[in-house]
Amino acid sequence: MVSSPESGSRTRTRQAILDAAIEVLGQNAAASLGEIATAAQVGRTTLHRYFPERSDLLAAVSAEGAARLRRADERARLDEGTGAAAFHRLCTEYFDLGGLLSLLFAEPQLITDPYWSEEGCDDDFVAMVARGHADGTIDPALPADWLQSTLWSQLYGGWSYLAEHDISRHEVLTLVTRTLTKAIAPPPPHDRAFTAPT
Question: 28: exposed, middle or buried (C-beta count within 10 Å: 0-12, 13-18, 19+)?
Answer without folding.
Answer: exposed
